[in-house]
Amino acid sequence: MLGYDWTRLHAALNDLPAALLLASVLFDLASTVSRRPALRVAGFWMLVAGDVGGALAVVSGLLAEEHIAHGEAVHQIMKTHEKLAFVTLGVFAIVALWRVVRETKMGGTERAVTLTLSVGGMAVLIATAIYGGRLVFDHAAGIPTEVLEAEMHERSEGHHHHGSDGEEPADDHDHDAPAAAVDTAKPASHTHAPGTPPHKD
Predict the structure, then answer these.
(1) Confidence at residue 136, expressed as pLDDT on a 0 to 100 scale
(2) How much is the CA Rg of the chain, to the nearest whole Å?
(3) Which of 28, 66, 100, 181 is the most buried (most CB within 10 A)?
(4) 49 phi and psi, to 5 degrees?
(5) Residue 68: pLDDT band by 50, 70, 90 thresholds?
(6) Which is it for the CA torsion 111, 112, 117, 120, positive or negative?
(7) Residue 135: CB partners within 8 Å, gap ≥ 6?
(8) Residue 171: which pLDDT band, with cuts at 50, 70 and 90?
(9) Phi, psi of 178 (to 5 degrees)
(10) What average pLDDT does this structure show over 107-112?
């Protein structure tokens, strides 16, 4: 699939719809405050595009779930993330359909209701993103076990930072315990056995 598995495809698909849905709510709020219809129109099209992209993100997420090795902790977070994603998509889909049918006929009260629903959907969207972040950053969900093991081995070995020209900058460091320093400026002092004639070092 163009070098993508379902997990990577889900990661690639879920950012843009979330940004579009968030922006659609902000544009609608700005339109309400400024009374500029053009902002509401922009928010409407962001909502539609975000719903379509959100549907693709949910489908790819459901397929990715079947390909992620995980334990019980990840399973519970994954299920919560999934439920929140369905609620988010459902709320914004209702708002989008409502506006497709009623956009040019809405009165002030009806528009306020749809805006309230959108703000609620935005809150659930943020919660969905938080749980998705926990899956990746707290539990490394979607990262193959062998990759994790290799990374853990590399971290245990420590690492050096290098400058772009290959020279180590002054603040380079090694996370391993430092080796004993050796003074190469002077030769180590030594003693002579009794009876040994004096000599120059």
Answers:
(1) 86
(2) 30
(3) 28
(4) -65, -40
(5) confident
(6) positive
(7) 74, 77, 78, 81, 141, 142
(8) low
(9) -70, 145
(10) 92
126's CB contacts (< 8 A; 6+ apart) are none
Q: What is the mean pLDDT of residues 47-68?
A: 91
If we measure between CA atoms, which residue out of 49, 64, 61 comes closest to residue 16? 49
pLDDT grade for 123, boundaries at 50, 70 and 90: very high
Angle at 79 between CA 122 and CA 64, to 5 degrees: 95
Please give the Cα distance from 141 to 69 (Å, whole number): 7
Mean pLDDT for 78-101 is 96
Instruction: Report the C-alpha gap between 193 and 8 in whole angstroms.
Output: 72
Residue 7: count other Cβ atoms within 10 Å of its Cβ: 20
Report how far Cα 61 is from the mean position of its chain's Cα atoms: 14
The count of residues in the chain is 201
Q: Enter the tokens of residue 78.
A: 């994954």
